[in-house]
């Protein structure tokens, strides 16, 4: 499929729009004395993480958000990392905290994510953030899930009553996608490893989300003609010559002949995920300002001066 094919639901334009909105909000907050700041935590040396961090830093700079990377040695204990996070929670100069994954095996990632204060949980990974989605508090949703829904909205499809199937039910992607879409009025079916016939469900979907980590799982005969397909999978595929390439959970070459929209991998959900992270940073900043006003009854300018 050529890159200019209109069936490609590319993430770049959607991400650019979100970043422009974030930049306007960040400039306004900075003018009032509240400059947003992200802190990225990396434990150990992982080359793939460095790529993500560089991308996040570049996009944060575009959005007018300060970005600081804090690197810790691989032998750091979970307790030491939690203590460092608690210090960032208490630091009014830090708006949001990002935990780069993977972390060393001896560090329990869920406990570390729970150590981040919900008001600074810009990744939307804290149990409270995920739980709030059930109650239609949607503005700090997990970034990948929110990015996926944002791409579906970019099709212009009316989500009210839309038949949606989500293949994959992870706590940070599949399940949040389902709740986000239900809040928009969509009718949602979630498939998982115990679903008896994924194909039967997938074939009736107006919009199909796939996040299972199985390369090319979804074939053309599993997709309803005219559907929107959001491919969230990222898999390394080894070619005959020994080289590798990144592919999604959808067999794009066959599905593109059936679907009206399909996200490319890479270049689909990924760019929007970073943009949502930055949008969440501004949501976090506004929540922190509101809490300070409510708690102390002090003008924001006085808080900024402090």
TrEMBL record:
Similarity field: Belongs to the tetrahydrofolate dehydrogenase/cyclohydrolase family.
GO terms, molecular function: methenyltetrahydrofolate cyclohydrolase activity; methylenetetrahydrofolate dehydrogenase (NADP+) activity
Annotated function: Catalyzes the oxidation of 5,10-methylenetetrahydrofolate to 5,10-methenyltetrahydrofolate and then the hydrolysis of 5,10-methenyltetrahydrofolate to 10-formyltetrahydrofolate.
GO biological process terms on file: L-histidine biosynthetic process; methionine biosynthetic process; purine nucleotide biosynthetic process; tetrahydrofolate interconversion
Subunit composition and interactions: Homodimer.
Tetrahydrofolate dehydrogenase/cyclohydrolase NAD(P)-binding domain span: 142-288
Location of the Tetrahydrofolate dehydrogenase/cyclohydrolase catalytic domain: 9-123
Catalytic activity: (6R)-5,10-methylene-5,6,7,8-tetrahydrofolate + NADP(+) = (6R)-5,10-methenyltetrahydrofolate + NADPH; (6R)-5,10-methenyltetrahydrofolate + H2O = (6R)-10-formyltetrahydrofolate + H(+)
Superkingdom as given in the UniProt entry: Bacteria
A Pfam entry, by short name: THF_DHG_CYH_C
Source organism: Mesorhizobium alhagi CCNWXJ12-2
EC number: 1.5.1.5, 3.5.4.9
One GO term describing the cellular component: cytosol
Known pathway: One-carbon metabolism; tetrahydrofolate interconversion
Protein name: Bifunctional protein FolD
Positions that bind NADP(+): 168-170, 234
Database matches in SUPFAM superfamilies: Aminoacid dehydrogenase-like, N-terminal domain, NAD(P)-binding Rossmann-fold domains
